[in-house]
Write a structure and sequence with these properties.
Helix content: over 70%
Mean pLDDT: 87
Structural class: mainly alpha
Number of strands: 0
Largest sheet: none
Low-confidence stretches: none
Radius of gyration: 32 Å
Distance between the termini: 99 Å
Strand content: under 5%
Length: 474
């Protein structure tokens, strides 16, 4: 009786840790950080993956409520995103390993089955592992007589694996961006050499360089490593980075058997590591060209050659190899590299590309470099003479159009820079050739383009007409 009269015991409520301000972030802020470095078009294309990562970050994951270390307090969101992406990569790899084990187990059971009913049982069980709902399983059971077979399950497995690979590659790409931002912000105050081991990126990324699934995962892992390494000062880079990582980078820059885009990224990373190694790699890649996709590596090589030729003048001899490269794509890259070179080396190469190259796109690329090459006033006479010679020789309609557009754009550039005397010389030197094209070009389109260029040169040559044009433009 006394027991019945006692009041019921209080029900204890589950304790929930109150949110801490420094661990609470707005969804918009998280998305902005994860979207960092993506072009608007790519950000729109990756919107589902960005939303998925944002939702997972705001959810419950190991370490979600852990306090950041003292050094990371001013950059708490970057640090927590880095920790989350490391967890996400581990989780995604575990899912892939489990999926592969399930697939191997299914294959073993299917091949060992004796009766059709037993095979169907194993197929339905594996379909359920792959995520088939109860309704989908009922449809699969009914489809055995029509189209469902072993190949269908294999295709579903491959699609699931490809989905995991895509998410793995995207997380790697975002990890590289977040890691680089964190190093750029925290490195100067806390020391890059001390900070690099704390991020624990190498133990995560290096094994993925040998990933045996989608090749894009290996490329994404190397790009993540390269992006974070570029955030380290060049004079401190070799000390915190492991010998294995450096050996992989140097080897990838020279090995033509490596994946093309890993070769390209490794080559672009060499200037940040060691200029002497860059010189060695450029001699090998331009002196011993490979076949097929090697042209992408050689194009990056000629761009690097132009950028570092002033610091590595002993590589001037490689310009001849680049000039005679079998790929117009590589020679176009050489034309684009000219503005970064010393004028003494760039101008002879420019003239050779403009007047002697057999490919019209290469000649057009050389013409497009004139505004940048004019930054050196002493080059003006040489460039004017080269363009005049090109107008006399050019027979390709597309290259002619590029030449005509470039001529009047250069005139306006000279006037905008206050170089009116050179603009007058430019107009007087080239107007007769443009007029000749207007009257004697073989096709009507070239004659029309020449007429437009001639009128523009004439209109902008006189100060009073320039004022009228500017007033009309307003």
């Amino acid at each position: 009786m006394n027991a019945l009269s006692q009041p019921p015991a209080k029900k204890w409520k589950k304790w929930v840790e109150p949110p801490r301000l420094r661990l609470t972030f707005e969804r918009v802020e998280i998305r902005a950080r994860l979207r960092d470095g993506l072009a608007p078009v790519l950000a729109q294309a990756y919107r589902p993956l960005l939303n998925e990562l944002t939702g997972a970050f705001l959810g419950d994951w190991p370490g979600a409520r852990d306090d950041p270390p003292e050094w990371a307090t001013p950059f708490v969101l970057l640090y927590r995103l880095l920790i989350f992406l490391r967890y996400e990569l581990d989780r995604r790899q575990d899912l892939i390993r489990r999926l592969r084990l399930d697939y191997a187990d299914y294959n073993r059971r299917y091949l060992g089955a004796v009766t059709p009913e037993e095979r169907q049982h194993h197929m339905l069980a594996f379909a359920k592992i792959l995520g088939a709902s109860r309704r989908r399983s009922a449809g699969d059971r009914a489809a055995f007589r029509r189209w469902l077979g072993h190949d269908t399950l294999v295709e579903r497995y491959q699609r699931r694996h490809a989905t995991h690979d895509r998410r793995l590659a995207f997380a790697l790409e975002r990890l590289g961006v977040i890691g680089a931002r964190l190093l750029e912000k925290a490195g100067p105050s806390h020391g890059h050499g001390l900070l690099w081991p704390r991020l624990e990126l190498e133990p995560l990324l290096l094994p993925l360089l040998a990933y045996d699934g989608d090749a894009r995962v290996r490329v994404a892992a190397f790009r993540a490593l390269a992006r974070t390494l570029r955030a380290l000062p060049a004079d401190q880079l070799e000390h915190p980075v492991s010998e294995g990582a450096l050996r992989y980078i140097y080897g990838s820059a020279l090995d033509q058997r490596q994946m093309t885009w890993i070769q390209v990224e490794a080559l672009a990373l060499l200037p940040h590591l060691d200029l002497a190694s860059l010189a060695t790699a450029l001699k090998v890649r331009l002196g011993q060209p490979g076949a097929g996709d090697d042209l992408f590596v050689r194009r990056r090589a000629v761009l690097l050659l132009g950028e570092y030729l002033e610091r590595l003048p002993e590589l001037t001899a490689l310009l001849s190899a680049a000039l005679h490269d079998s790929s117009p794509y590589v020679r176009q890259g050489l034309a684009e590299a000219l503005p970064a070179m010393p004028a003494a080396a760039a101008l002879p190469v420019w003239r050779e590309l403009l007047l002697s190259d057999p490919a019209p796109p290469v000649r057009a690329a050389a013409l497009l470099q004139i505004p940048s090459l004019l930054a050196e006033p002493a080059s003006f006479g040489f460039l004017l003479e080269g363009v005049a010679a090109a107008l006399d020789r050019e027979r390709d309609a597309w290259a002619a159009r590029v030449a005509l557009q470039t001529i009047w754009q250069v005139q306006r550039r000279l006037l905008a820079d206050g170089r009116e005397a050179e603009a007058d010389r430019w107009t007087i030197g080239l107007l007769p050739a443009v007029s000749h094209w207007h009257g004697h070009a073989a096709d009507a389109a070239t004659r029309r383009w020449a007429a437009q260029a001639r009128e523009r040169l004439w209109a902008w040559a006189d100060p009073r007409r320039r004022r009228w044009l500017e007033a009309l433009a307003e």
